[in-house]
Amino acid sequence: MSFNMTEPDQITTSNESAQGGKAVIEIKDLYKSFGDNHVLNGFNMTLMEGENLVVMGKSGSGKSVMIKCLVGLVKPDSGTVKVLGEEINKLDQQTLDELRSDIGFLFQGSALYDSMTVRENLEFPMRRHKEKLGVVSDTEPLVREALENVGLAHTMDLMPVELSGGMKRRIALARTLILKPKVILYDEPTSGLDPITSKEIIELMRSIQKKYGTSSLIITHDVDCARVISERMILLVDGINYAEGTYSQLSQSTDPKVDAFFKK
Amino acid sequence: MGKTATLFKGAKKFFIEIGDLSYFGARFFKEVFKPPFEFKELMRQCYQMGNRSLMLVTVTGFIIGLVLTLQSRPTLIQFGAVSWMPNMVGISIVREIGPVITALICAGRIASGIGAELGSMRVTEQIDAMEVSGTNPFKYLVITRIMATTLMLPILVIYGDLVALYGSALVENLKGDVSFQLYFNTVFDALSFSDLVPATIKSFFFGFAIGLVGCYKGYYSKKGTAGVGVAANTAVVMASLLLFVVDFIAVFISDIFYEL
């Protein structure tokens, strides 16, 4: 793997940056095209246990496609995607569904079910995973705990249409947490939110990571979000992991493509 | 040359659409008998589709009965055949007008509703969220809706037929001094098993077609809010066209049985 970087001493490949822990997500040579549009051209990435990894890229650079490959929503053309030791593309539907209970996914637009109350939204993922949670019939304590984690216990019986954008995002986060996932994938967690609400969401993400020790993969183009939350960053350019390092390493880079992300 | 190419492109698109719809229908039959079964959601959809279409079917059926009788009356009087009014109205409503009009009303109301609802769920990633949570969205959203339309349409058709006959009886009662009892006795004497059964059977197929097209258009809605509108709109057009095709096939088959 090679990078066209001007400061190679500061930037490392994903394999080199492994922090000695256990890899929870491994992507190798991921390719995905939509017709003539080659979105991913051999993307590589490793997320270590307990790590906060940010993947940054321009709009349309393939960040969301990559994150959707991790949960089997998009099938790659080639390459391997391993999550928690399982190769996603080789799993049968039942095993994939079981594995998905260990992966939380926060969607860009929250993706709350419009026709359900907040309570029903949170209960919905539990329907297929009650054995994992040890819940027989009463889901109320789990729903309440998840909502208290995001500070919105009072919204239990409201409909999504009655909530603000920030509240929706927090409820979506609560819904993600209810299955107690080992890995959380955040797809643009702060997009469309005002700076204050964005800050609240970022704080919430950090407190959740601290409380549950989850590994987090954050897809964003929000530099402030990346600065606050990332332990390591990957820049996705032209379908490959163009550069990798910590926020301070990348922000000091003189490579024009890297620099373009950090210019104010 | 340009026109031929456009025609060829249009034909290709049409056959691809038919192929995709058939594949979608085949997937329904593949998954409908496999557990887990979403009974609660099925009941909810039956209630939504049945109950919420009731007022529309009532008004439409009543007006159809009234208008059909009012329009036919002068001609039948001219031929001295006004006593045949209950027979004529009864058979035409039960065999054809009732099922087709009710199905068209439901295609407009239900197919567009399903298309828009699933389309907006697709656009806002709610279907993806469902899949990620380990729930099969095809079973939860598609199978329940197609089952609900298939089960509810025959009930709505029978109800619509009765309301239309009541509308017709009202005209006969007011204009021809025919009692309701006499009117309905005459209607039921004129109707036979072979009128009711094919009409009821084809209503199931109408319901299936409405649910299938609505779900297909919504489930594969293109990204963006414009896609939701297109899904709702094309669902109504395609479902209405499919209803006439199904009706033609049903009438063709039942005609073979009448001749036996």
UniProtKB/TrEMBL annotation, chain A:
Give a single Pfam family match. Answer: ABC_tran
Question: Which SMART domains does this one have?
Answer: AAA
Q: Locate the coiled-coil region(s) and give their ranges.
A: none
Q: Where is the ABC transporter domain?
A: 25-263
Record's PROSITE patterns?
A: ABC_TRANSPORTER_1, ABC_TRANSPORTER_2
Q: What are the alphabetically sorted keywords of the record?
A: ATP-binding, Nucleotide-binding, Transport
UniProt-recorded Gene Ontology molecular function terms: ATP binding; ATP hydrolysis activity
Q: What is this protein called?
A: Phospholipid/cholesterol/gamma-HCH transport system ATP-binding protein
Automatic annotation (TrEMBL), chain B:
Q: Does the keyword Translocase apply?
A: no
Q: Where in the cell is it found?
A: Membrane
Q: Which GO terms describe its molecular function?
A: phospholipid transporter activity
Topology relative to the membrane, per the entry? Multi-pass membrane protein
Its keywords, alphabetically, are: Membrane, Transmembrane, Transmembrane helix, Transport
Please tell me whether the keyword Transport is annotated for this protein: yes
- TM helices/strands, residue ranges: 53-70, 140-160, 196-216, 228-253
Q: Which InterPro entries does this UniProt record tie to the protein?
A: ABC_MlaE_roteobac, Permease_MalE
Any one of the GO CC terms: ATP-binding cassette (ABC) transporter complex
Family indicated by similarity = Belongs to the MlaE permease family.
Q: This protein is called what?
A: Phospholipid/cholesterol/gamma-HCH transport system permease protein
Q: Which organism is it from?
A: Arenibacter echinorum
From which lineage does this chain's organism come?
Answer: Bacteria, Pseudomonadati, Bacteroidota, Flavobacteriia, Flavobacteriales
